[in-house]
Input
Amino acid sequence: MSLDRPVAPDPYQLLPAVGSFAVASSDVADGQPMDQTFAHPGVGGSNVSPQLSWSGFPAETRGFAVTCFDPDAPTPSGFWHWVLVNLPVSVTELERGAGAQEPPGGAFSLRNDYSETGYGGPYPPAGDRPHRYFFVVHALDVDALELTPDSSPAYASFNLAFHTLARAIITPTYQV
Output
């Protein structure tokens, strides 16, 4: 049974325009269903973050953040699955499963909307339409955002809005 509600807008189209660059994955594809490996254990998944790599970001980039957001969750605020901040500019790839590992170079993950640190896979309501998962690499104009591991994903997103030079987005889907 589908929850009868309108499709949420692309959240990044609602923010100030920034440049773009390329993100690729050997695990997920834009607009295509994700494998159950990347889903939450509550739906039989393994809760493994997909491999991501990026290139073509602005020369003045000083650091990165990686986020995963589901605007289709049945909440007014969507659902944050992953917020990884303060990645050094030298990091241009996260291997499969990086969301459960200690990030490199002083980077850290915030608590996601499961109240867990790191990556939390898709867990949409059974029977709902396919949900979109916006995996976004943010190229930043600072080495590190002024956040702590206790910062909320919404507060991190607010800070990202003021420090993002460009974004690379890949949006796979998942449905139970």
Q: What stands out?
A: The chain has a mean pLDDT of 96. The chain is about 5% helix and 30% strand. The CA atoms of residues 33 and 135 lie 13 Å apart. The longest strand covers residues 79-88.
